[in-house]
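Intended use. Records like the one below are meant for learning the mapping from a protein sequence to its folded structure. Do not use them to infer anything beyond what is encoded.
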Amino acid sequence: MKVLVLIVVLSGVLLIGGCASSESVRHEGGFPVYMAGFPTANAIKVEPVDEILRLPTAAKRYLSHITLDATRKQNSVLDELIESMFAKQQLDVRYYSHANSTVSETFTSRQANCLSLTLMTYALARELGLKATLQEVEIPEYWTRKQGFSLLNGHVNVRLTDFQGNWKSSRLVDFDARMRALQFKAQPISVRRALAMYYNNKASDALVNRVFPVAFRYLQAALQQDDTLTAAWLNLGVLYRLAGHHQYAEEAYQKVLALEPENLTVRENLAILYRLTGRPEQAEKLASEVYQLRQSNPYYHLNLGDEAFDKGQIALAKSYYRKAYRLDRSNHLVLFAMSKTALAVGHKDDAQALLQRALSNAEQHVDRQRYEAKLLVLNDYVEEQTK
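Structure written out for the chain above:
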């Protein structure tokens, strides 16, 4: 099973690695990042830190209006900023899971993933003189599929605080309504760690598209910002594995285990590497441990179902989706997946009902739009067939 871990939020990856030259360069953390595997990567430019966080001129004009409106309405600058960001007549930002963009790009397009939206909010708040604390949210393992890869997701948000003399007001800004409702624990993180996540997400995109030197260059940038970011080490291991550098991959995976001994994703990737390098007993032991620990996670079964569905194994996919459903009956992703299998075997009424339930349980605007469009097409098709 291929798994790609992206952190975003994001967050997560897993992929592949042979032997190569022992030549290496060392980044700030002192752990070897082997340039010999991707000699053209040095010529690749990545966005510098100041460019990622730079506010465009239009954003500064927007903030001037925020300040004026707060004064006119006798409202706090903090409340005015948050209200305006989600107002359709003003900034109206939208969440899109795969859009990795700089602050300037996000402000211009008004859409991005939660990391890019959070970084924009951080930059806007700081420009207004507010305290902004970036946070990494502790969520269960949760995968999405993209171009044949399984992407392990993470999540971030930002807490904004306004100080006025002895008075203090604090608000949490989280662009994922489901995460807000579940109220998972969150830990403050540094700006450097958030920037490392940004570079890691860009690397994950390059990995999915198999542009390996670009992926390597972004992972190098991520680890220069924060060499404790396990998602970046994991993605680096996947990159090495895909490129045939098995020894390098194992070193990267071992770095993850040193930082997070219980990390299931890296243990699964390590099992894959053991199989590739002729260590079947070690591979099976690790894989069995991971399998047992994941049985209570609906997203694990959902991911296995998606892989089976992609291969045309509809009956197997349906079995996995049913396991996920028994663990979480209100998950819109599971309901949508079950709708796909129902439609694939010609059960159109069931597909409609499940898709409607997915729509009812989805909280993100982008998910509701997707389900509404699919439901409209399906309804039209069913009506046409019954005429």
